[in-house]
């Protein structure tokens, strides 16, 4: 039953078809966003310590920038609708629409039943990296986040400063809730600055040293009112390992910018998805 059939090569040679053609996706008005960004005032700043996480808020129509400030460091980002935490970043659908890694002009989409853009990437200083010879690229939506459960499964460790736990503590502190309640809100992430891909021979998720350097940043336009949480991963630049205290780690910074009045004239926040919700009943 495991023998290759006579037509195996012909089956492998079938051309792929893109699952979700995006020609009909609403296009962000990047020119409007760029004009609004000119003269925008900085209204908030949060520094995320190494191997820790912190929360921030960005209102609809504001910009938030994640920056490397001291050394090469990757971060794990969660986003929620600030007024309804059941609407949160949906990494799987973002991946299906935009691919395994995201960059300028692409969007972070929210969970069902909302399925609308939460944030649009408006600047990416690592856009030049592209896809390398190993199939690696930056800002992935394929890794879930380092977590204490997988660490325990693979190594028997009890490690608490992985990104999942970092995000859990930060959310608990921000919302004033228990760790158990906060953990239910933590979800699959955007791996900011992380350089990843899949091996060609085994299809395994890999990481390699991030090309990020101090001054590099990824900037977003908030399409709705957002609560964000960012973890400075214990893997540092993820050149060797994560979920340990061995890697050199550095802080990350989040800045929020508010455009001047009238700079977004004509812009409207995205409506909830238009599916009527009957599910065939």
Topology of this structure?
Blueprint: H1 8-12, H2 30-37, E1 41-48, E2 53-58, E3 63-68, E4 75-81, E5 84-88, H3 91-98, E6 107-109, E7 117-124, E8 137-140, H4 148-155, H5 163-175, H6 179-183, E9 190-198, E10 205-208, E11 217-222, E12 226-232, E13 252-258
Antiparallel strand pairs: 1-13, 2-12, 3-11, 3-13, 4-5, 4-9, 4-12, 6-7, 7-11, 8-9, 9-10
Radius of gyration, CA atoms, in whole angstroms: 20 Å
Poorly predicted spans: none
> Helix fraction?
10-25%
N-to-C CA distance: 42 Å
| Number of separate strands | 13
Report the structural category.
alpha+beta
The figure for the number of domains is: 1
As a percent range, the share of strand residues is 25-35%
The residue-averaged pLDDT reads 96
Overall outline: globular
Number of helical elements: 6
Largest sheet: 7 strands, antiparallel
Structure notes:
The chain has helices spanning 8-12, 30-37, 91-98, 148-155, 163-175, 179-183, and strands at 41-48, 53-58, 63-68, 75-81, 84-88, 107-109, 117-124, 137-140, 190-198, 205-208, 217-222, 226-232, 252-258. Strand 6 (107-109) and strand 7 form a beta hairpin. The protein is built from six helices and 13 strands. It is an alpha+beta fold. The protein is 17% helix and 28% strand. Strands 2, 4, 5, 8, 9, 10 and 12 form a seven-stranded antiparallel β-sheet that branches. The protein has a six-stranded antiparallel β-sheet with strand order 1-13-3-11-7-6. It has one domain (41-213, 222-249).
């Amino acid at each position: 039953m495991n023998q290759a059939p006579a037509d195996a090569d012909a089956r492998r040679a079938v051309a792929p078809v893109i699952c979700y053609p995006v020609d009909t996706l609403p296009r962000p008005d990047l020119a409007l966003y760029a004009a609004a960004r000119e003269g925008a005032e900085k209204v908030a700043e949060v520094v995320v310590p190494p191997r820790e996480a912190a929360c921030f808020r960005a209102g609809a129509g504001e910009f938030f920038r994640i920056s490397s400030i001291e050394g090469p460091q990757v971060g794990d980002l969660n986003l929620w609708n600030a007024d309804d935490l059941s609407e949160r970043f949906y990494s799987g659908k973002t991946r299906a629409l935009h691919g395994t890694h995201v960059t300028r002009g692409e969007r972070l989409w929210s969970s069902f039943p909302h399925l609308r853009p939460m944030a649009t990437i408006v600047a990416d200083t690592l856009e030049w990296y592209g896809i390398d010879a190993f199939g690696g690229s930056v800002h992935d939506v394929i890794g879930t986040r380092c977590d204490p459960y997988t660490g325990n499964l693979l190594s028997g460790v009890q490690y608490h400063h992985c990104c999942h736990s970092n995000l859990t503590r930060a959310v608990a502190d921000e919302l004033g809730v228990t760790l158990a309640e906060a953990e239910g809100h933590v979800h699959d992430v955007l791996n900011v600055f992380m350089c990843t891909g899949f091996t060609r021979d085994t299809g395994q998720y890999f990481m390699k040293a991030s090309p990020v350097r101090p001054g590099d940043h990824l900037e977003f336009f908030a399409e709705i009112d957002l609560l964000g949480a960012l973890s400075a991963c214990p893997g540092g630049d993820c050149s060797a390992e994560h979920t340990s205290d061995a890697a050199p780690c550095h802080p990350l910074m989040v800045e929020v910018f508010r455009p001047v009045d009238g700079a977004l004239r004509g812009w409207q926040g995205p409506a909830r998805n238009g599916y009527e919700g009957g599910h065939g009943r």
